[in-house]
Design a protein that fits this description.
4 helices; 84% helix
C-alpha cells in the first residue's frame, strides 16, 4: 500500500516539474519575441493537461469500459469533465507560478541602467 502512494507522489512531482519547465520555456520564447503578455500563454500551457486528460477518459469510456447505457455515459463524462478541469486548473496555476518566478528572477538579475 505504501508503494502505491509513493508511486503517486513521484508522478505528481514529475508532472509539476514537466509543467513548470514547459511553461518557463514558453514564457522565455514569448519574452524573447518581445511580447510582454506572457500570462495567458503560461496558463494555457499548463491548462492543456485538461484536454489530454479528458481525451484519455473518453478513450477509456469507449474502448476499455465499453459502456452501453446512456445515463452511465453522461455521469462518467460529467465526472471526467470535472476532474479533468480540476487537473487543468491545478497545472495552469502551477504553470503561472513557475513563469512568474522565472520572470521575477530574470528581471531582478538584469541591469537597469
Amino acid at each position: 500500500m505504501i508503494g502505491f502512494f509513493f508511486f503517486v507522489f513521484i508522478n505528481l512531482n514529475l508532472l509539476t516539474v514537466v509543467v513548470s519547465l514547459i511553461s518557463v520555456t514558453i514564457t522565455y520564447l514569448t519574452l524573447q519575441a518581445q511580447n510582454w503578455q506572457w500570462w495567458w500563454r503560461s496558463f494555457l500551457a499548463g491548462y492543456s493537461v485538461f484536454f489530454w486528460t479528458f481525451a484519455y477518459c473518453i478513450y477509456h469510456m469507449i474502448v476499455v469500459f465499453k459502456m452501453d447505457v446512456f445515463w452511465s455515459d453522461i455521469v462518467f463524462l460529467l465526472y471526467s469533465l470535472l476532474i479533468s478541469n480540476f487537473m487543468g486548473l491545478l497545472c495552469g496555476s502551477i504553470s503561472v507560478c513557475a513563469s512568474s518566478f522565472f520572470v521575477w528572477v530574470m528581471f531582478s538579475s538584469s541591469k537597469s541602467d
